[in-house]
Structures
1.
Amino acid sequence: MLLLTRFSLLPLLGLFSVGAVIAAELEKAPEGSFTIVAIPDTQGYFGLGTKRSPASNDPVTNPVFEKHVRWIRDNLEAQRIVFVTHVGDIVDRNNEAEWTVARRCLDVLHGIVPYSLTVGNHDMTARGDSSLFQQYFGAERYRDFPWYGGDFESGRPSPAVSGNNANSFQLFHAEGLDFIHISLECNAPDDVLAWANDLLARYEGRRALITTHMDLGVLEHPKSDDGFIHDPKGRMRWTKCHGERGNTAVQMWDELYRKHANLAFVFSGDQSRCTALRLDQAGDHGNQVHSLLSDYTSSGPLRLYRFIPSENQVRVITYDTTQRELTGTTEYVEDWESHQFTIPYLMRSE
């Protein structure tokens, strides 16, 4: 039986004790470790035409997104950050004003650290047209970087659906370990999953990570707002994009995730009222696939995955770049162990 688990807290580099919130900068990541950052949904736009300040005539801004990228830039060395992924819903209303702000934010990271972007349901139309995302973050923007592996090419007359960096992969190396990371759009259709299957087989010697927008959350589409908070949770069985072509998270598990021995982590967002979930599930080869949801309502928390090969573990640190403190409780998930915990992951054998 599969269980969504709340794991007991292990000390994270002596940074805190259970129940404490430390309003301070994180200590430096230890020698021999490295960090992968997952930026949660960044839908918190303010100004003219936005949901959060509909009466405003001010220019569009996104203060939390700006703080995230500046903190990452300023802490690249101290936190030994080697890769950054965005779990999707980069924008809220999928208009040029918000995409312009998103581009300005991500320019802070461009050229200084490998990063990926995942297309969420707010970043495309319901039928899967992500042409505005492609206008601001198309494949041509990344082709000259050695870490950029490439993107899915659909073969359709227009790349507006699924093409031109809507699905992409990256290759990077850290502390003697080789990785492939794949970004898959929300409810990726079968042809995209076939492309991802080929990639994971081609790079079977690399450790694999996937970011997609919808994975963990409320199992069935809630019938009320209260259901988004209290209904049973797990790998999702409903879709938002691509119509009948769109795959649920369960279908993506069956058609892709479970098949590859090198896949270790699946990062996702989308479910702000679930906020933080974890599901560990064995793939067909006996490997544990760790699925991790982080969607902090477009507020201050950022997710850090600190890989420590010498200890064969990944320390999951949720850090608020606005308040400059560790996140121990949120509106919907109050227990500390959902935000700060440790995952066993074999990287060094004796």
2.
Amino acid sequence: MKEITIEELNKLEKGSYELIDIRDEGLIAYGKIPGATTINFDETEETYSRKIADILRDKLLVFYCQVGRRSRELDEEYPCLAGRNCASLKEGYIGYVRSKMTDEGDIEEKRNRAEESIRKKYHKQLFTPFAKACKKYQLIQEGDHIAVCISGGKDSMLMAKLFQEIQHHRQCSFELTFLVMDPGYNKENRALIESNAKALGIPVTIFESNIFDAVDTIENSPCYICARMRRGYLYSKAKELGCNKIALGHHFDDVIETILMGMLHAGQIQTMMPKLHSTNFEGMELIRPLYLVRESDICAWRDYNDLHFLQCACHFTDTCTTCHEDGTTSSKRLETKKLIAELKKSNQYVESNIFKSVENVNIDTVIEYKKKGVRHNFLDEY
């Protein structure tokens, strides 16, 4: 399929083309090009063929995926595109995002607007729960040197800005290093992370590793192994730079989804902890300062400031939406997210109740539990 650049697309007459997003719903929920139509080619042929047929035949069909690979191959696969004037958006959604990060004046304006919105419009939704988690779980202490780990997504980028903001309050003296690991990103992903960091005024320290190459041939649980390896590299680099903590961008929704997935898919009750001691790197801790921040509020801040971030920088597939340390696939997490949303329709407190469930464990009513690797059964004291 022929390719068309963002610049060429912008020169076309409005109404002469139809922009079509073919990514999975996880990526689309993370952000899409305004005005684009969604067509999922993983649906039944009847469904996506009907959607194509509903578009006027004189229109140019401009398809885009995440980085432009999948959309280039469409005309070879789908009969419904035969005889249609089609094009693939070069560099896909990431190319679109990068095209919005070229003007220096615009960058300065974006940074000021993003910071101002944290202090005012979204102070209650973002900074307040961030500060509350830091205080409640004692995440920041005097003399800390924290490596703020930035993956390139909305969560870690916002976390970096919140750390900058809380440091301005000077209630506690601590240092920050904004750490980005390049595990083998393609050039588009690497450039997008650098562009967003520049636009938001985040002075990142980037180091490289060969993790993607190392897990390229792994068939079973590559995301789990990749995530564990990335964690180890981050700990190692942070310690080398004199840090005593690494901060990750997991938020409230990640926590409750993990609790529910543990029950439904692993047959266990456990949670994503707000902080952990490293077992392999002595003196190092992992902290999660977005622990009480809702994902919907992060998205609202992102959209208000017209920011576009990388969700998954995995170079294996355009449809990989998340990589999680617990080994769960993106489909399982998305399924759990939908389940919680469905339950919320009849119980508005379902999210907070899931979270509180691991704060209100009654050991007297638990058949068996583990503590420091040792199993305890209720019959032991019955």
3.
Amino acid sequence: MKNYKLGLFAALALIFSLESCIEHEVIPAPVPMVELSCHFLGTVNGTVLELTENVSGYTGKSTKNLNILPAPAVSSAAYNFEMSSTTTMNFVKVVLGSVLWDASVSISPDLAAFNSFHAANTTPSYSSAGTSGFEVSYRDGNGVTWTSKQNSVNAQNATFTGILQESDTIGDYSKFTCNFNCYVYHQDAGTLLWDSLYIENGILKGWFQR
């Protein structure tokens, strides 16, 4: 019996020593990522247009236009979001600007300025290139781009709702739904004449990235 106990003890000791030599895999905790999604629905020149993420190659993308000036002049940043496809010509793009900041302090507006700007600009006026407000562009199936005008004689409006700021390891985002009605314009390069299309009940869900 004594020998049996000694043998059992030795076997257990061997098992424990073998287990202690095994390197256990360390699985890192999941990194939280902001869920970004996009969608557009509207009536363009009397025809319903719907752009759906991951259908026909459509995805969303956010960029920004920086106009950096040396101090003491202030710099400005305008934010873009577009839904476009690698296989289809139609796209919709909106621009909202501008956040003003001191470029000698940071290379772009900080998170507090980014959040304050979007929270304060829920019903922006229309502006050329979005330098001081809102602009929308639409590209048709023939590759012709039509753009809203700051000085349009036609009624136009834009409203941002559902604004939600979220951040992850990649960046900071202002998620939104934008509702707008406006005419968009295109000038013929040959005749120099202007033509227009009406976008009615446009609803664009997307995000701006700081």
